[in-house]
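Q: What residues go here?
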């Protein structure tokens, strides 16, 4: 399944200066990277929720622009404090700030290196925030948050860490399944289609498959009908992915039959 990524942003890549011909051993891209890292360290305090709104907005615009390129994402992935502040801004009082912060996280999490950094350092914050936004039927950011959770579970080695945080929330998978199966659950025109790939990603792990195959909750039987969902290839593909992963698990074959 493809990573979720925000496409309609101003893409600002890390500029690479032309390397002088008389110094073939010098890496101009390395110098550029160092200067960008220094700039990121300087704006990190302005990305804190306590900073002035105008400073947060301008700094966040630069960060969001950097997430439009892989080079920019790889640099941002090294800035743990900045990532922490960015996650904090998803709860900011300003709606535009909250939106830009979540969109930046969508693009960051689309690259495995950044997804790994987010999960390793901030899963305990990131996962509950995303879950709460998705469950909130009046949230305007439920779709991008579902993309974030989808992205950070795409690499198989990150699934268990995310699942661990989800399972700290009582009946979290069951409630997410309800959001997925109730068309028009979100009252702000959120589609929640990316919950499908999220479920598919979670079912990469044995524990994830066991959750979906739990006969007492009947989650799999609620998801399977969406393998024929015509309105969204993303939702349909997610349902197919769950079924495929479950079918490849020989321990549940008898139950499936």
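A:
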């Amino acid at each position: 399944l493809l990573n979720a990524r925000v496409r309609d942003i101003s893409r600002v890549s890390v500029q690479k200066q032309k390397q002088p011909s008389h110094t073939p051993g010098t890496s101009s891209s390395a110098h550029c990277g160092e200067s960008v890292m220094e700039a990121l360290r300087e704006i990190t305090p302005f990305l804190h929720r306590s900073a002035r709104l105008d400073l947060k907005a301008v700094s966040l615009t630069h960060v969001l622009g950097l997430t439009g390129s892989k080079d920019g994402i790889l640099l941002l992935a090294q800035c743990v404090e900045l990532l922490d502040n960015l996650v904090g801004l998803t709860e900011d009082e300003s709606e535009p700030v909250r939106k830009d912060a979540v969109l930046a996280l969508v693009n960051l999490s689309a690259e495995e290196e950044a997804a790994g950094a987010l999960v390793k350092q901030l899963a305990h914050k990131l996962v509950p925030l995303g879950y709460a936004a998705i469950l909130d039927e009046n949230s305007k950011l439920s779709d991008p948050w579902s993309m974030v959770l989808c992205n950070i579970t795409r690499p198989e080695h990150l699934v268990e860490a995310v699942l661990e945080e989800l399972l700290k929330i009582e009946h979290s998978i069951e409630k997410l399944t309800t959001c997925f199966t109730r068309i028009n659950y979100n009252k702000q025109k959120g589609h929640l289609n990316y919950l499908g790939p999220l479920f598919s990603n979670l079912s990469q792990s044995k524990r994830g498959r066991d959750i979906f195959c739990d006969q007492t909750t009947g989650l799999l039987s609620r998801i399977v009908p969406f393998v024929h969902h015509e309105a969204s290839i993303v939702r349909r593909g997610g349902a197919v992915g769950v079924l495929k992963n479950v079918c490849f698990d020989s321990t549940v074959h008898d139950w499936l039959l």
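A: Context that may help when evaluating the design: Residues 32-193 form a domain with the Leucine-rich Repeat Variant fold (CATH 1.25.10.10). The chain has 14 helices and no strands.
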